[in-house]
């Protein structure tokens, strides 16, 4: 009798631990809650680049001779998915703020950390950048951009090599990103 | 001297080879493709636009396989009659019914002006199938293509059709040209 109770307790603990860790490591946001935005929006753009497509892109790019393309493959090698939603509205503040807050509340759950937030009075712009780490490895990024007439959400799942992407900025149609390199200590000439 | 029996046997062998060679036979439109075409035709009373010589283009693609494209199907429609408020939901439901779980929805866009675009993809062995459905006001297009990713990579490295290079410069094994000016 005692052993049955002990085993039941062990099974319960195992299920509880695996359930919580599974959720803690999952950087995928639930976009199902955005139906309210979808119905009110004038224009909608939805992009779902999941594991299959990323694998395909990696396979194709790995076989090309372009060294920069190979670096992109290296930078995105661990990625599991990229999901984008853009909603544009006809009038200002047409959307229900509660819909956006429902998404932001997902980002307040354990695991997510707010990396940056920008507030601008121009167009009531709010930009929030969140990251999720599994140990020392970045396991997800979420960006929420809301303006008076539009909302954009980006969810990247999997580790991203930011340094490598910074190195590739300005090449292969990747926008130029000015990130100060720690190694670059050489004094700049005065003009 | 060639006997009658030998010549008949040769002819039969040629016939069997011609039937069995998949290169020369353009792939027939798949079930999901037909289903979407039917939906546009029946639900929105769309009129099919005749594309001249498309069969020849399909045959040529199945033979030449440019950029790894093995086959394709295109159907154009005009005079679609739909409600802008409901068309996206109707199309999403129709696409969900037509494309099974093996297909991934990659892209979807809709605008208030009545423009819709949907893109689906699936892997089939070594090949990849892509399906695109676009609606622009009263016109629509349904496109399906099957391509080999490996052949596409080869084409990207050395773009040529029928042995004729589309590159201005001769292909190099590795491009190490620095994009930043030297310091």
Any idea what the shape of chain A is? globular
Broad shape of chain B: globular
Largest sheet of chain B: 6 strands, antiparallel
Q: Radius of gyration of chain B from the CA trace? A: 22 Å
Percent of residues in β-strands of chain A: 25-35%
Q: What is the number of helices of chain B?
A: 5
* Structural class determined from secondary elements of chain A: alpha+beta
Low-confidence runs of chain A: 9-24, 181-186
The share of residues in helices of chain B is 25-40%
For the biggest sheet of chain A, the summary is: 6 strands, antiparallel
What's the quaternary structure here?
A: heterodimer
| Largest sheet, spatial ordering of strands of chain B | 1-2-6-5-4-3
Distance between the termini of chain A: 85 Å
Give the SSE layout.
The complex is a heterodimer of chains A (191) and B (183).
Chain A: H1 2-25, H2 35-40, E1 43-49, H3 51-62, H4 67-75, E2 81-88, H5 97-106, E3 112-120, E4 125-134, E5 137-146, E6 150-157, H6 162-168
Antiparallel strand pairs in A: 1-2, 2-6, 3-4, 4-5, 5-6
Chain B: H1 4-20, H2 31-43, E1 47-49, H3 54-64, E2 69-78, H4 87-98, E3 104-110, E4 115-124, E5 127-136, E6 139-147, H5 149-157, E7 160-161, E8 164-165
Antiparallel strand pairs in B: 1-2, 2-6, 3-4, 4-5, 5-6, 7-8
Structure in words:
The complex is a heterodimer of chains A (191) and B (183). By secondary structure, chain A is of the alpha+beta class. Chain A has one domain (29-168). Helices cover 36% and strands 27% of the residues of chain A. Chain A has helices at residues 2-25, 35-40, 51-62, 67-75, 97-106, 162-168; strands spanning 43-49, 81-88, 112-120, 125-134, 137-146, 150-157. Chain A has a six-stranded antiparallel sheet with strand order 1-2-6-5-4-3. In chain A, a hairpin with a 2-residue loop joins strand 4 and strand 5 (137-146). In chain A, helix 3 (51-62) runs antiparallel to helix 4 (67-75). The longest helix of chain A has 24 residues, at 2-25. Chain A is globular. Chain B contains five helices and eight strands, in the order ααβαβαββββαββ. Residues 14-26 and 173-183 of chain B have low confidence and may be disordered. The longest helix of chain B is centred in the first third of the chain and has 17 residues, at 4-20. Chain B has helices spanning 4-20, 31-43, 54-64, 87-98, 149-157; strands spanning 47-49, 69-78, 104-110, 115-124, 127-136, 139-147, 160-161, 164-165. Chain B has one domain: TBP-like, CATH 3.30.2030. In chain B, the strands form two sheets. Chain B has a six-stranded antiparallel sheet with strand order 1-2-6-5-4-3. Chain B has a two-stranded antiparallel ribbon with strand order 7-8. The A-B interface holds A 42-50, 52-53, 56, 59-67, 90, 170-171 and B 88, 104-112, 121, 123, 128, 149-150, 152-154, 156-157, 171-176, 179-180. Strand 1 (43-49) of chain A pairs antiparallel with strand 3 (104-110) of chain B, so a sheet runs across the interface.
């Amino acid at each position: 009798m005692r052993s049955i109770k002990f085993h039941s307790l062990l099974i319960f603990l195992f299920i509880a631990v695996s359930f919580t860790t599974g959720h803690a490591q999952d950087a995928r946001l639930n976009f199902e809650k955005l139906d309210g935005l979808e119905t009110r929006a004038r224009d909608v753009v939805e992009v779902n680049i999941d594991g299959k497509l990323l694998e395909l892109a990696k396979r194709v790019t790995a076989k090309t001779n372009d060294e920069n393309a190979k670096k992109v493959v290296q930078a995105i090698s661990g990625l599991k998915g990229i999901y984008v939603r853009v909603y544009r509205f006809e009038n200002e503040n047409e959307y229900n703020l509660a819909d956006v807050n429902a998404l932001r509340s997902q980002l307040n759950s354990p695991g997510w950390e707010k990396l940056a937030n920008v507030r601008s009075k121009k167009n009531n712009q709010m930009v929030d950048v969140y990251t999720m780490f599994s140990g020392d490895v970045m396991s997800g990024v979420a960006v929420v951009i809301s303006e008076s007439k539009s909302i954009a959400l980006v969810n990247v799942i999997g580790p991203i090599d930011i340094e490598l992407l910074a190195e590739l900025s300005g090449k292969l149609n990747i926008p130029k990103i000015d990130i100060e390199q720690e190694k670059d200590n050489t004094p700049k000439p005065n003009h | 001297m060639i006997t009658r029996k030998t010549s008949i046997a040769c002819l039969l062998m040629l016939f069997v080879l011609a039937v069995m060679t998949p290169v020369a036979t353009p792939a027939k439109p798949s079930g999901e493709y037909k289903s979407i075409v039917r939906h546009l035709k029946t639900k929105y009373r769309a009129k099919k636009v005749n594309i001249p010589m498309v069969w020849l283009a399909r045959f040529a693609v199945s033979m030449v396989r440019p950029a790894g494209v093995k086959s394709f199907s295109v159907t154009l429609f005009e005079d679609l009659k739909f409600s802008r408020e409901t068309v996206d939901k109707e199309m999403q439901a129709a696409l969900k019914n037509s494309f099974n779980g093996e297909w991934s929805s990659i892209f979807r866009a809709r605008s208030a002006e009545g423009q819709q675009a949907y893109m689906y993809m699936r892997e089939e062995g070594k090949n990849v199938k892509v399906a695109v459905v676009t609606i622009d006001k009263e016109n629509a297009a349904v496109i399906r293509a099957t391509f080999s990713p490996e052949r596409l990579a080869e084409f990207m490295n050395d773009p040529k059709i029928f042995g004729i290079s589309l590159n201005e410069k001769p292909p190099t094994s590795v491009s190490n040209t620095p994009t930043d000016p030297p310091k």
